[in-house]
Amino acid sequence: MEIQNFISRIKSLLIVKQNDLLLQRLTVLEKKLERESFQLVVLGQFKRGKTTLINALFGENLLPTSIIPLTSIITIVKYGQEEKITVKFLDGKERKIKHIELADYVTESRNPKNQKQVEEVVLEFPSEFLKNNIEIIDTPGVGSVYKHNTDVAYEFVPKADAGIFVVTADPPISESELQFLKSIKDYLAKIIFVQNKIDQVEEKDRQESLEFSRKVIGEAVGKQNLHFIQLSAKLGLDGKKERNKDKLKASGLDELEDSLNQILLTKKEQVLKQSVAHKLLPIIGEIELQLQVGRKAFQMSIEELRNKIDIFNKEVERIKQEKEDNNYILQGQAEKIINQMLIDDIDTLKEKETAKVLKNFEAFFKENENRNGQELSKSFDVFLEKIIKTIFTGWRQEEEQKLQNSLSSIISRFSVQTNQFTQRVIDLSATLFSFKMKRLPTDLSFAQEIEFKFSFDEYQVDLDLYTPVVSRLPKFLSHKLLYKNMRDKIIQEIDKHCGRSRFDFHQRVVKSVNDYQNKLDGILEEIIRGIKTAMEKGLQQQERTIKREKGISESYREQEMILSQIEDSLVDIISHIN
Ligand SMILES: Nc1nc2c(ncn2[C@@H]2O[C@H](COP(=O)(O)OP(=O)(O)O)[C@@H](O)[C@H]2O)c(=O)[nH]1
Ligand SMILES: [Mg+2]
Questions:
Q1: Which of 219, 336, 380, 568 is most deeply packed, by most CB within 10 A?
Q2: pLDDT digits over 395-418, tens only?
Q3: Structural domain contains residue 465
Q4: CA 408 to chain centre
Q5: Which atom of ligand 1 is nearest to the CA of 65?
Q6: Is residue 259 part of a domain?
């Protein structure tokens, strides 16, 4: 690959060879080119046959499927020389497991509400298809009864390089599937739609049913002629396992495989090229800056150079100090805005929902007051848990979006600011060493990539209102007491969940902002370090060498030329891909 050559060229430049940090960064990019995987994510509501479809692609029962249990965990299938399964836990620990143990971790029935705290499961498998660094990701069902399942699916979409969205003719597309699709609209270009389980649809009805799905989804997302493939994952899997050509043909699986191959062949390279080119440009900018400083430094008298180094160091200290003060102020502002917003929103939510729930509770109690105390308490548990879930699930999604929006505006202020400081450092060196810089050697484009992920625990409403004391009271008394306790409990539970939500959101905001700022500070630091090294090199060379000035200057010039050519090609590559 072209870019690969560019990187080796850059690595062979004298100035880079002497700089471990630059070498490291370039090696990281090289590795990325070699190794980075293409992620294909399989999406859809639970029980639409996502897992079966993945198994069909491989022709064996790689992942557990079933009529009842739902996959609750992300499972990544990727290439390995032999089969190996690794469970990764949320706390960072890992465990190798056997194939038969897989269901213990990835199904809702054996790992309910992800009790085992699994982050993801990685299944390595020696398949030709995967050999090209392709990873297939099985997601939990969208619109699942378990909120954490849906979150997981949502999180993965933007990260993936392409997706397969699985629906069925029967049951038809649901509201939650449509909702999900609307929310991932921007990524639709990379999604293949599959209508699975056609073996359950009479042949004469198939076309109509496909058109119907296409129309419903197309309307929901505002697109016509979505790429839709009709197939039967089950037939495909059986056909492959039994080596039954007729079944395989009837399954329609080959159409999907063809589309996938096409996407993988064209897309994979493009995506990779583009992202590496993007990351390479700022590195080139940095090297160019160092070359310019180095060349000029070499041309000065030692006295002059020492003097300039001195000025540079002093001025940079001042800039850094200023940046630190600024960071501090901005961080405080960010926290204040977010915190205030959170407090306001949570207060509003609490007030509104508590009143509403208490009103609903009256109706609930009337309906259930004939039951005995134990049953009444039980159904109250169900009633309250459901209500709490509904309130906080919806609210959290909205609030998350809102916080994310405010946060990105704050974050972009950080970026602008860092840019300004970086610019000052560059201007400073450009003035001291009298050269012009054509490109700002920073890549602040990852401003959009801020990590702002939320993962809440599942709601636990553990009430136990029906205590031994209450149970011994006569019914009219116990019910009166229960009524009062239940009302109190509603208020308490809403309050508790509000408090937890606030704490959680707040913590994550602070962490996101901090992480981001550190990243930005790192960029500035690196540029400063680069310039300093270049200046010092210049000084050393002057002190040591008998003035072979011309040779050294020429070498600098030559390196600058090479970089400038590579830079042009990269810009070309990026603009062609886009
Ligand atoms: N008839 C039929 N059943 C299928 C097909 N694909 C999957 N199923 C069944 O649908 C159920 C759910 O499949 P699964 O792959 O676990 O769905 P997931 O929850 O989307 O991963 C299982 O009982 C499968 O055997 C198909 O093409 N035809
Ligand atoms: Mg599944």
A1: 380
A2: 887 887 788 777 777 777 777 788
A3: yes
A4: 16
A5: 16
A6: no
